[in-house]
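Allow me, if you will, to draw on your knowledge of protein folds for a short while. The matter concerns a single protein, recorded as an amino acid sequence and a row of backbone structure tokens. Could you please explain, in whatever detail you think fit, how the structure tokens follow from the sequence? I remain grateful for any guidance, and I place the record below:

…
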Amino acid sequence: MKKVGLGIIGAGWIADWYYKAYQKLSSGITLVGAVGNPTPAGKERLAKKCALWNCKAYDSLEALLADPAIEAVAIFTPTNLHYEQARSALLAGKHVLVEKPVTLSVSEDHELNKLAKERNLVLFPGHNFVYRPVVRKAKEVVESGVLGTISYASFRACHFIPEDHATGWRKHFVSSGGGAMMDSGTHLVYQSLYLLGVPTSLNCFLSKQHYLGMDREDTCLITLQYPDGCVGSIFQSWSANDPQAGEIRIQGDKGVLTITDALYVNGEKLEEDSSYESSFFHTLSTFREAIAGESKPLSDSESAATTLLLIQEAYRSAREQKVVAFNPSVY
């Protein structure tokens, strides 16, 4: 099997998780090098990480993209930088894995998708939670009909964030595009779309209870209704710390599915792998398979655009204090 040369753009904590995943891959990817923040402190941090990772430290994004040994890149930078970096990588002929949210504009998502298709390249949103075995198995359960008629679903996460996250680029709307829902909540939104499909209407409430210095919310509740009448909720909070942290619950008239530490259907454990760490391994493995044409990603730029649009429409609902119709096809 020919190995794909990978370059990392952005050497923060997410890059560390992906490097752990890379170490567990038996074949398929070779880490060639990385580029980070161009400040003196950023360059020093990058040099230390590349020494640990046994790869090259590039002085600039342009130098990394010009290296023919790099066939794919993984973008782990602040959200407002994703579009230009992903576009440059695609124009340079590189496959792209990009952290969520892919961009801060639905039109930019569509543009990157078009560019990737024109150049026959993989554009792969880093929707790592959907690659967890518990979520894949949950999709099978939902589609099997074993739950009966589904009436309600909830997607919930409640936890604090590190202080450097609350005071760094996530603090400012111009770089983050939103608060808790746009950041951590993106995981909940794309999982809801994967498991239940696209809602027809939504309503949203926002609050700032703990991280008062942030531009936007630390707590967000979205309520939804689906074409078949099912209702749902997506709740993301940074204002308290729940030991359970997160839960997905889907209830029907014949059964109940929950994802916590594992996947349970009517109390029976069906799949154990729900871990955050392993989600990066499954994501990176699927990225490699997608480049090789061996499998189709569960996440693509179209689903990423729908995820972004749902959050932005939720924010509009909160601003206008009304229920809004949701129809991604008009964008």
Residues 301-320 form the longest helix (20 residues). The two ends are 40 Å apart (CA to CA).
